[in-house]
Amino acid sequence: MYTVPLPRVGTDAAWRDAAKRLIGAGISPTDVLWDFGAEMGELFATATPLPPVTRRIKAPQSFVSLANTVVWHKEPKRFARLYAMLWRLRHESGLMHDRTDPELAKLRQMEKSVQRCKHKMKACLRFRDLRQGGTRRSFAAWFEPTHHTIEPTAPYFARRFADMDWMIATPDVTAQFVDGNLSFYPGQPKPDLPEDAAEALWRTYFCDIFKPVQLKLGAMPPETLKQ
């Protein structure tokens, strides 16, 4: 039995790497446990390393695209579902075109849910002006995504607002864009403020966790996770 730890940041790349190693070694889906963000704790920990990459693993581009989206869904079984589908693709070449397959239909539904969440984040996110000194403006926003979509959506904001510093705080992961560098931190608790709170109250909340002056001086917190 393999227990595969998956980080909260870089989840997609970590899942792809593990899946390639496991498939290449012929490890059945029933022999794999996927541990996202160390949620299983030490009870299921294992010292067994993943198998080495021994050969190139091929998968349909349609599956790769599907997996790159579904990994950000909130369902705990998403990684197991994806790996089971990859396992089946070894012998069912036309599986990705089978509209009657219930497992594929479930994954497609999950894919749409993640895409809707990403779209909602782009359309509804409200930045608040922190009005810090310096040549770059500073903004921040609070958002509660339905799925784990902060990481795959943050590059969109980095491109759109490249001329300013900003932070997007969520309960899961917090994204910060400072001086053109995109970084990820642990999530933040929901602020005890109403949505219509005065700008001064929101500014105080965000400044307590953003600290853009500190970040620009290079005093990054030790738990920073950079992309």
Number of domains: 2
**Discrete helix count:** 7
Structural class: alpha/beta
Largest sheet, in brief, is:
6 strands, mixed
Number of strands: 8
Give the helix proportion (percent range): 25-40%
Whole-number average pLDDT? 85
Percentage of residues in strands: 15-25%
Task: Note the run of SSEs as H and E.
Answer: EHEHHHEEHEEEHHE
Enumerate the spans where pLDDT stays under 50 for 5 or more consecutive residues: 212-227
Major sheet: order of its strands? 3-4-5-6-7-8
What does this structure look like?
This protein is of the alpha/beta class and 227 residues long. The protein has two domains: 2-118, no CATH class; 125-226, no CATH class. 38% of the residues lie in helices and 17% in strands. It has helices spanning 11-24, 61-70, 78-89, 102-124, 150-160, 199-210, 212-216, and strands at residues 2-6, 32-36, 128-129, 137-142, 164-169, 173-178, 181-186, 225-226. The chain has a six-stranded mixed sheet, sandwiched between helices. α2 crosses α4. The longest helix is centred in the middle third of the chain and has 23 residues, at 102-124. It is elongated, with a radius of gyration of 20 Å. The chain starts with a strand and ends with a strand. Mean pLDDT is 85; it is low at 212-227.
